[in-house]
Specification:
By secondary structure, the protein is mostly helical. It has 17 helices and eleven strands. It has a single domain (12-442), classed as Glycosyltransferase. 44% of the residues lie in helices and 5% in strands. The strands form four sheets. A four-stranded antiparallel sheet has the order 3-4-7-8. The longest helix is centred in the middle third of the chain and has 21 residues, at 251-271.
Length: 465
């Protein structure tokens, strides 16, 4: 191999490893992110998992999304966790007895038969549903996959654009740092300083039993997360009334909603519904995203704190995610690509993978959760965005690095962006799924069937339950 040429992992090795992770983490109806640290079903994890799983079994990928959406609330929200009642309460915190969704969320339409959390995660779901449908359109049509999920996805988007437009300017707001998915990003440090943390003795941290404390959020941050979640629960998970203590317009959440609105327009066409409202909403959201969150001085989209209506001056990877927006103005897309390859994110230069936070930021930490490490879902989205906006050679470089690091890290939850060294837990489901998707896209492997269990075989035969 010539010097400087990216090393490509042997496709069979990556394929075998990714299959093993996805098989081992399958519960019968969905996939856990990891067996120890995350023993339930997570919202955006399942969307990313389904995107990779479609290459092994499109029906099982459909089941993944159907299971998640079966726990949707009456107001349209898709909760960020769907709890498995067979898992002991002390295996994860906050557990079902903290969220109390079926009681505290009853007025908002929380399901009575399953316990969930009361907050949400980024809306990747319509995009995932469309990609899963495309993997096997005949089976999808026979099972009525899109026809059944379209109304649920439309209700989900209505919830976000109506109940969560807390700023009144057309963008979705998040009310907890866990909602944008980048849990303890330095972007949240300033808004979180307003929050009085829950007392240390009032909650327990199960996460520290499965990972190094240096890789996880601090106790102070966790106390603030607990306080915000408890306050939201105690107000019945309502989004009206007095403004919440934490309210932020996040570019990643809104970019994913725009991409999913474009996907929902295609889904609408496939099921005989009108696509025009979804395309119009995508345009309105794109205009609001540029107007509210674009910062020309940094060449990046920034988060906006709604409590004082100001941009938060921290460079997080969420600010690069608008690259996935099809209607993004070309000049802004070009500027974002320059920012991604510049010193703050180092893509194609200092960093092997896009970090979750500014390499030059005062709060950068290559090991601690979303404060610097590289995550595979972020890099999958950036790779997709680079291709969308004409930067295929750079996307090829990123894809090669992601494939190599996925294998060498043991499909780690996240990695050091400079070295690719594994951080967090291993055998992480979305890492395996998205590496598989990148591998297939590169031509390194085709779809390969898996010997599924009897239950999934019944789904493949055409059942809908």
């Amino acid at each position: 191999m010539e010097s400087g040429e990216p090393h490509q992992p042997a496709p069979p090795r990556l394929l075998r490893g990714a299959r093993r992770v996805l098989l081992d983490n399958w519960t019968g109806t969905s996939t856990v992110p990891s067996r120890g640290l995350y023993p339930h079903q997570w919202s955006w994890d399942s969307a990313f998992i389904a995107i990779g799983l479609r290459h092994l079994s499109a029906p099982r990928a459909q089941r993944e999304l159907e299971t998640l959406l079966s726990a949707q609330w009456g107001d349209g929200r898709i909760p960020h966790i769907v709890f498995n009642p067979a898992v002991p309460l002390d295996a994860y915190f906050p557990s079902p007895d903290f969220w109390r969704s079926s009681r505290a969320g009853a007025a908002a339409g929380a399901p009575a038969a399953v316990e969930t959390s009361g907050i949400v995660q980024p809306p990747v779901h319509a995009l995932a549903c469309l990609l899963v449908h495309r993997a096997d359109p005949r089976t999808s049509a026979r099972r009525g996959f899109l026809a059944r999920l379209y109304p649920k996805l439309a209700a989900w988007h209505r919830y976000l654009t109506e109940a969560r437009d807390l700023g009144g300017h057309g963008l979705v707001a998040v009310v907890h740092p866990w909602e944008p998915g980048m849990d303890n990003s330095p972007c949240w440090d300033a808004p979180l300083k307003r929050i009085e943390p829950a007392a240390p003795g009032t909650f327990r941290r199960a996460d520290l039993h499965h990972g190094a404390a240096a890789d996880r959020p601090t106790d102070l941050d966790y106390g603030r997360y607990v306080r915000l979640a408890a306050d939201y629960r105690d107000r019945g998970y309502r989004d009206d009334g007095p403004p919440p203590a934490f309210a932020v317009e996040d570019p990643g959440v809104n970019a994913l909603l725009i991409a999913s609105e474009h996907a929902l327009a295609e889904i609408a066409t496939a099921v005989g519904a009108a696509p025009a409202p979804h395309r119009a909403r995508a345009r309105r959201l794109t205009d609001a995203l540029v107007k509210r969150l674009w910062d020309p001085a940094t060449g990046l989209f920034l988060c906006r704190d709604l409590r004082d209506d100001t941009l938060i001056p921290e460079r997080g990877a969420a600010g690069l995610l608008p690259l996935i927006v099809p209607g993004l103005p070309p000049a802004l897309a070009a500027h974002l690509i320059r920012t991604a390859t510049g010193p703050h994110f180092g893509l194609g230069a200092a960093a092997r993978l896009v970090p979750s936070y500014d390499l030059l930021g005062a709060a950068f930490d290559a090991s601690r959760y979303w404060r610097g490490p590289a995550w595979f879902n972020v890099n999958w989205l950036v790779e997709r965005g680079l291709r969308l906006h004409g930067a295929a050679p750079l996307a090829d470089t990123l894809r090669s690095a992601a494939l190599e690091v996925a294998v060498s890290s043991g499909f780690a939850e996240y990695v050091d962006p400079y070295t690719g060294q594994a951080r967090g837990t291993r055998n992480f489901s979305w890492t395996a799924a998205l590496a598989l998707d990148l591998l297939v896209a590169s031509g390194g492997a085709g779809a390969e069937p898996v010997a599924w269990d009897r239950e999934t075989a019944a789904v493949e035969a055409g059942g809908t339950d």
